[in-house]
Amino acid sequence: MNPELINRLEPFRAEALRRWIPLQDVEGWIAAARPCATLVTRGDGPVVGRFGGPLLLPADVPDPWFPLLATLDCAALPEEVTGLPLPADGRLLLFGFPDLPSYSAPAGEVVYIPEGTPVEERTTKNDGYDDSVYEQFPQEELRLAPDVSMASHFLVRSEERGGEAVTLPGHPRAWELAETWEQTYGDIVVDGPLHIGGYASHECTEADPVMDAADEAKDARRFRGDTTELPAPEEWVLLAQWDIGLDGREGSTLHWVIPRQDLADRRFDRAHVSFFWNP
Prior knowledge:
This protein has 279 residues and is of the alpha+beta class. Helix content is 22%, strand content 28%. It has eight helices and 14 strands. Strand 9 and strand 10 form a beta hairpin.
């Protein structure tokens, strides 16, 4: 990660040391920071996509079950900014709806369209979704703001201890460090609604939302009778996070997660979308 992003973390370092957290623990937490892209609707950053807009899909792609949230230009989102092995070109379409699904079913989907693929316009589906929420979906250009991300979670499940939640290995002061990040990140990160890469978060982050979503993906496939083995939760990454600011869905978040190798292989059929809401 470039030095400019690391230097942004100085308010976190200063506050952590003020709380008498040992320097080696502070530096260990900072070393785990990740680059990410925050997409904003204002400012002078390059346009990298848009919220809403026409739904353009290849003829052989089925109609998505969920409304279109955003279309992203992969060529405008380099790996050094997002920390992700996104395709070098083409468009990534994020679909989803902020509602609680049943039986760990996904709350959205992802479609990748390679550059040069012929497309046709479709009618965006909104079958069975709350119109009062859907009508608030944003319709704006998205601009790139390179950003930095640190973990907000401090627990992980230990398979050696029967799935019991334990403090993050290697970080004995994880709770205090995560709390310090929660107190200081507002002076560090870019304020924007859509995040690409980095760490996932939501209002009640204790365990990693990416690993929780990976477990959801496994449960959803098992419920459908699909016995395909999925990668272990620690092999999944955050593709995108929408911090939802809609009336009636305050405090909610959508996470699009995917196995890192699937992302590198341009395989998006195993991506999973999870919804968190603390109404």
